[in-house]
Design goal:
The chain is α/β, with parallel strands linked by helices. It folds into three domains: about 5-95, STAS domain (Transcription Regulator spoIIAA, 2-Layer Sandwich); about 110-150; about 150-370, no CATH class. The chain contains 13 helices and five strands. It has helices spanning about 25-35, 55-70, 85-95, 110-145, 155-165, 170-190, 200-240, 240-245, 250-290, 295-305, 310-315, 320-335, 340-370, and strands at about 5-10, 15-20, 45-50, 50-55, 75-80. Strands 1, 2, 3, 4 and 5 form a five-stranded mixed sheet that branches. Strand 2 (about 15-20), helix 1 (about 25-35) and strand 3 form a beta-alpha-beta unit. The longest helix has about 40 residues, at about 200-240.
Length: about 375
């Protein structure tokens, strides 16, 4: 049947009954017919799809454009008799074509500033909502995996541990070693006028074991592995591999996300310990060369400055940092659209968001530990 659009009146409502095949081959003819449709005085418009024989993406987009145009004229538009075969297509088109919040115009003045703050606040709320929804999906998948351990993909998890952990030992160790040297030098310069250079060891030990070691390891992993998660999953979205997984009945969260989260959670505590060790090693080297404090004296002072609990305080935070980094990295990867520009933008957002939330979590842990008196 040739495509057509029947128009009738039902009280104050305009009823549109598309018929035939709404496919790309007839797009030009459909576009010409749709251009003639006006809501006029009708305050309600019903689009009845019972007569549509077939519809592809082009036809769905034309229908969505018609709906948007009628709504813009002030009419309330409803779409009726959407068959089971058309519902997913129309849902995807509407989701893709949803109008984003427009950023405020550039300029100066209190109104523009207020508009900019409002825009950023709405964007932050949307981001938070999307992240919480993704966290819920991941939690459900973890619960399903815990109930059926055979669903856990052990080999990909170990591969992620090797890539995010073993391969990162060099960069984490080097940067921690250098930061340990810098901290020791700065601390010694401040304490030297008082003849208290020996307490540089206390400053280094408390600072690294409680805060800096875990924080540095998490920030490095956020920039190194979190961005890799986003880029890898984003590239799979661009190449339609995620769609292929869903077509085969595979859950992308179970296949791609869970192994990455578990791998990072199991890896980051060891990287934190490694960062603590290399940071203290850098401080010990600096103490020996700059302050003439021998290694034995350094170790004795270190033993008196911190307890085993101080080591645990830094490591306890690592799994939470890891979960935060992996969740954000995977979530941003799944949000990539089919363009190279989207992959780059989402990767950048992944790193920024992960580092920001890691620092916020570290601050919350510091407040929590302080309230507990530890």
């Amino acid at each position: 049947m040739a495509q057509s659009i029947e128009q009738t009146r039902d009280g104050d409502a305009l009823v549109l009954r598309p018929r035939g095949r709404w496919v790309v081959a007839d797009a030009q003819a459909l576009d010409d017919r749709l251009a003639e449709i006006r809501a006029g005085a009708a305050r309600r418009v019903r689009i009845d799809l019972a007569g549509v024989e077939a519809m592809d993406t082009t036809g769905a987009w034309l229908l969505f454009r018609l709906k948007r145009g009628l709504e813009a004229s002030g009419a309330a538009v409803s779409v009726d008799h959407v068959g089971a075969e058309l519902a997913p297509l129309l849902t995807q088109i509407e989701k893709r074509q949803a109008s984003p919040v427009k950023p405020p115009r550039r300029g100066f003045g209190p109104i523009v500033l207020l508009a900019h703050i409002g825009f950023r606040t709405v964007e932050l709320m949307r981001l938070t909502r999307a992240l919480l929804a993704f966290f819920g999906e991941v939690a459900i998948t973890f619960a399903r995996t815990a109930a059926q351990p055979r669903r856990l993909r052990f080999t990909p998890m170990v591969a992620q541990m090797q890539r995010a952990g073993v391969s990162a030992l060099g960069i984490v160790g080097l940067l921690s070693f250098l930061v340990g040297i810098v901290m020791t030098y700065i601390g010694a310069q401040q304490l030297k006028p008082y003849g208290a250079e020996i307490f540089t060891v206390n400053l280094l030990a408390v600072g690294f074991l409680r805060e800096l070691g875990g924080l540095m390891a998490a920030i490095i992993i956020a920039g190194r592995s979190g961005s890799a998660f986003t880029a890898e999953i984003g590239a799979m979205v661009v190449n339609e591999e995620i769609d292929a997984m869903r077509t085969l009945g595979l859950d992308p969260i179970e296949v791609l996300v869970v192994p990455r989260i578990l791998g990072l959670i199991l890896t980051l505590p060891f990287l934190t310990f490694w960062a603590d060790f290399t940071g203290l090693a850098g401080g010990a080297v600096m103490c020996r060369t700059s302050l003439d404090i021998p290694l034995t004296t350094f170790l004795v002072q270190l033993h008196g400055a911190v307890s085993l609990w101080s080591v645990f305080l830094g490591i306890i935070k690592a799994p939470f940092f890891a979960a935060c980094i992996a969740l954000i990295g995977c979530n941003e990867g799944l949000l990539v659209t089919r363009s190279a520009e989207s992959v780059g933008r989402r990767t950048t957002q992944s790193v920024v968001q992960a580092i920001f939330l890691v620092i916020v979590l570290d601050a919350l842990f510091s407040i929590f530990f302080n309230e507990l008196g530890i």
